[in-house]
Amino acid sequence: MNVPGRSFDQSCEPSLTTPNRGFPGEFRLGFVMLAPILAVTILAAVFPPDGKERAHWVQFIGRFHPFVVHFPIALFLLVPILEIAGRSIRFTYLRLSVPFVLSLATVGASIASILGWSLARSGGYSGTLMIQHMWGGVVLSIVCCACWMLRPRLQVSVAYATVLVLGVGLVAWTGYRGGQLSLGPNHLTEFMPNGLRALLGVEDSHNVGSADPNTFYGARIQPIFSARCINCHGADKHKGNLRLDSYRALMRGGKDGPVIQTGNIQESDLLRRIKLPSNHDDFMPKGKQPLAADEVKTIELWIAAGASDTLAVNAINNAPSGSAVPAEVKFEKIDPLVVARLRSAIGPVVSQLQNQFPGILDYDSRNSAELRLNASILGIKFGDRDLETFAPVAEHIIVADFSRTSITDHSAAAIAAMKQLRVLRLIDTRLTDATLLQFETLNQLESLNAYGTAITPAVLPTIARLPKLSRFYAGQTGILPGKSVPESLVGKLVF
Amino acid sequence: MSNSNACSRTLTALGIKSESHTEVELAFLQARTRRHFLRSVGGGLGTLFLGTLASKLVPSAKAAGAETAALDFSRDARTPLSPLPPQFPAKARRVIYLHMAGAPSQLELFEYKPELKRFDGQDCPASFLAGKRFAFISGVPKLLGSQYPFHQTGQSGQWISDRLPHIEKCVDDICFIKSMRTDQFNHAPAQLLVQTGNPRLGYASFGSWVVYGLGTENHNLPGFIVLLSGGKTPDGGKQLWSSGFLPSVYQGVQCRSHGEPVPYLDNPADVSRSLRRSMLDTIDEINDQTYAAFGNPETVTRIAQYELAFRMQMDATDAMDIRKETDSVHAQYGSKPGEASFANNCLVARRLAERGVRFIQLYHWGWDSHGADAKEALNLGFNDRCREVDQPTAALLSDLKSRGLLEDTLVVWGGEFGRTPMRENRGGQQMKYVGRDHNPGAFTIWLAGGGVRPGMSHGETDDMGYEIVKDPVEIRDLHATMLYLLGFDHRKLNYRFQGLEQKLTSVKPARVVPDILA
Q1: Domain match, B128 and B45 both
Q2: Is B219 within 8 Å of A358 when comparing Cβ atoms?
Q3: How many domains in chain B?
């Protein structure tokens, strides 16, 4: 607070200030400044952005919004700094420039608001984020102007200080919304270190999927949209009134109606646009690299097959394999909170088993709650009794190796209960046909290894019914190479 | 330093003439007032607070009950080799690395270059020599076509020479990288680069990194075992399996494939196992006291090594004893119990892989085919090397395949650099035997199993097999790709040492090669 009567002020002030302009004059100028603000308020209220693209020149000037917007922000934030620093005797003169800075900030804010509205109106923006950002900007222009008008010369009134503080808060909030619009809704937390993330309780949105990954849509189609489209056609920004972040929104379509006609690849607008040459006006994703040929093909086949969200993931035979070589390998992220939640049910049992049998049971990776059991390390010391203790986690085991252990056919039911098994190794065990005949439940099994056991061709019909099996190791068993096998096992036996 | 400068300045200002350094300091401390203390204490307290805040951020993952979720390699000091899950689901669970020390000629084995054959015997063009450094070539050497005929083979139709008739049968399981590149043209640094990611001494080897990252499931055997054949230790020496800056418990353990696997592993006569046990208990007790007093992690390593050796007395001898294999297996590998051979080592490698050893490293020495004498001539000694490795390598691949182990075992075969398409002319003279000089610019290695795409070739060299024209793969790219198969982002498998987060791939950016992933 400036104390009147200090000799410093009185001696300096006359030489630094312009001739007294008087209160009413500033007020008048303030009202002049209100005109463009009023204009943008009316524009925003009467012609709200509606997701349609129009008028190229409006969009041209609108694109300058991000460029211009930082000037009034910096100027406005300078005001509290000048006011606070000006409280020190050495910097009193700083406060003399506040009205000038505020007037520049007000002009800048109204220009930025107009440009912002132009961009939103003509660039096809809509959505909650955009609405909040737009009104935040408009209110901020008004706040700027109000500060200017409320500020008494060289004094700080309560009303002025309150509005100024509110304005600073509004700058942060509106700026954050703007950042979300251009960089994505989680742009501040996306690369947050895991430690900090856990401390603040922020979840990694990358790990939260909605569509069922066992459907073709969930496994193959939604990932393409998520990677390439939802920045502009998502929950927070829906250009052309189209959202591609869920199956329902996709089928609802955009401002020109549905973008997908089930079973009709000619009439599906989405497909037409992604197949256009990238310099065409209607091309999508606009301004970005075109979708890969395999991605386009996958979408085309899915539409042709009825564009259903319940279609099984492997229902389309000639779909390009998902493993089309990417240009770069992406590394999975680990979110400790998500992993902790996944493991919460089995964690204590797993720890206890790990203490009881060191080294043979562990999670498949640091990111999963699936387990690998490698009993072969213990060799003949591992028997039927030991296997029984793993019953509580049986359905979480995806890889099990019982090679050279002393388990017998008594363990058949215990193995058959591991319904998620993908790889099972029984090399050189005493297991016989009796055990393998019980494996009908293992419908996730991809690799079965019975090398060196006494099994016979009698197991082949049962094994042949395992839907995902791709490798059956039958060397050194009663099954001999070159004999006829059930059709579904052709090419899968390894000797 | 600046503190004492400041204090002597202060003293001069105060008019005190100092006699000695300690007196100066004493006087300085006496000159400090309560105001000095209060002025500095504010910043100090603030820094302390920031320190506690920062330390909170890292272990907070533990507080959330997911201690294994963050990339944390800490273990109980007593069990430094205990297994840890990989960062993400891994295709390969273990590695068998067959290092052909001396660098085999890719032009006699895998690189079919009919154009080079056409120019055989002609002077090497000047453009090949400009700005290049060679180990021995001087003047203008002659181009040298492949010494052996090539043909296409397997369903994948890959080209291979007639020197490897057994490996040829496995070609559909093999992924060739024909565009490997290194920046070292001498054996020792080039081998160090391949095995430790750095051409200088003192870095952790590939096997050490893998055991550090994943531990080992079988605690009765070392997690990283090294087997040598070919009569000589590779030029890079034992540094090739050293743990460098990693705790020494992660270093490779060199084993012999005949007799005692590790010298003096057996108890001496009249020393029973129980006597040995009580002796170790006493030593452990003393070591424990030392560790409690000084806290040096190497003491714990020493305890762990004693205990491992004790357990190995039972298991290592069994794992290395190839006499337990049937005659048909010996016929397949060409192994003979009691010999020191690459064939025996390949069979041991399979036995170790079955027992959960994480990283099995074989070196076979003698591929340095300069042509300076008969042993290293492309037309003589080279043939012997091919014969020594061909059948055992193929037997290892097909044995692993039929036992289902190739699914999650990554097999690597290759040298440390390639060989020139020019005939070596040591001292500018035509030499009696045919040979080639070192070529760091292009060479071939191959991978099989463990999540590698089988039956393919990646990368190409020019018509002379001299320089890479398509998809070059640096050593660090190979390392990054192998670590990826083992379930790691190569940047995350790191260890803080000398102020740097040290990585196998070192400081230059490395790239996982997506084309060779199955």
Answers
A1: no
A2: yes
A3: 2
State whether A347 and A486 are in the same domain: yes
B188 and B324 housed in the same domain? yes
B216 interaction partners in chain A (CB closer than 8 Å): 359
- In terms of residues, how long is chain A? 495
Nearest-angstrom CA–CA distance, A6 and B69: 63
Among B175, B146, B176, which Cα is nearest to B162's? B146
Same domain, B384 and B431: yes
Cα A16 to Cα A92: distance, rounded to the nearest angstrom: 11
Residues 318-347, chain A: which have Cβ within 8 Å of B? Answer: 325-329, 331-332, 334-337, 339-340, 343-344, 347
Tell if the CB–CB gap between A364 and B61 is shorter than 8 Å. no
Nearest-CB residue to A339 (from B56, B69, B71):
B69
Distance, CA of A216 to CA of B210 (rounded, Å): 37
Q: What is the ipTM score, two decimals? A: 0.82
> Could you give the CA distance from residue A26 to residue B42 in angstroms, rounded to a whole number?
45
A202 interaction partners in chain B (CB closer than 8 Å): none
B-interface mutation test, from A325, A330, A331, most B Cβ less than 10 A away: A331
Residue A249 lies in a domain: yes
Give the domain range for residue B19: 2-57
A199 interfaces chain B, CB cutoff of 8 Å: yes
- Claim to verify: residue B135 and residue B33 sit in the same structural domain: no
pLDDT one digit per residue (tens) for chain B, 518 residues: 444 455 445 545 554 454 566 777 788 777 877 777 777 777 677 776 776 666 555 444 343 333 333 478 988 877 888 999 999 899 999 999 999 999 999 999 999 999 999 999 999 999 888 888 888 998 899 999 999 999 999 999 999 999 999 999 999 999 999 999 999 999 999 999 999 999 999 999 999 999 999 999 888 899 999 999 988 899 999 999 999 999 888 999 999 866 677 778 888 888 999 999 999 999 999 999 999 999 887 888 888 888 888 888 878 888 888 999 999 999 999 999 888 899 999 999 999 999 999 999 999 999 999 999 999 999 999 999 999 999 999 999 999 999 999 999 999 999 999 999 999 998 888 899 999 999 999 999 999 999 999 999 999 999 999 999 989 999 999 999 999 999 999 999 999 898 888 999 999 999 999 889 98
Domain boundary among B57, B80, B103: B57
The domain boundary, picked from A122, A148, A183, lies at A183
User: Are both A142 and A239 inside the same structural domain?
Assistant: no
Q: Is residue B81 included in any domain, yes or no?
A: no
Q: Indicate if B124 and B21 belong to the same structural domain.
A: no
Mean pLDDT of A113-140: 89
What pLDDT was estimated at residue B80? 86
How far does the CA of residue A368 sit from the closest CA of chain B (Å)? 8
- Test B64 with A337 for CB contact under 8 angstroms: yes
Name the one residue in this structure whose structure tokens are 């009580």. B278
Please give, rounded to a whole number of angstroms, the shortest distance from the CA of A310 to a CA of chain B: 27
Would you say A408 and A384 are in contact if contact means Cβ atoms under 8 Å apart?
yes
User: Residue A397 sits in which domain range?
Assistant: 336-494
Whether A331 sits inside 8 A of B88 (CB atoms) is yes
C-alpha to C-alpha distances, A111 to A34, A119, A164, B444, nearest whole angstrom: 12, 12, 20, 63
In a domain, A326, yes or no: no
Domain-located, residue B88: no
Residue A144, SS3? helix
A489 and A376 in a common domain: yes
Long-range contacts of A488-493 (CB under 8 A, 24+ apart): A488/A464, A489/A460, A489/A463, A489/A464
On whether residue B77 sits in a domain, the answer given is: no
B230 in a structural domain? yes
Please tell me whether residues B13 and B145 are part of one structural domain: no
* Whether B88 and A425 lie within 8 Å, measured CB to CB: no
Mapped onto helix, strand or coil, the DSSP state of residue B446 is strand
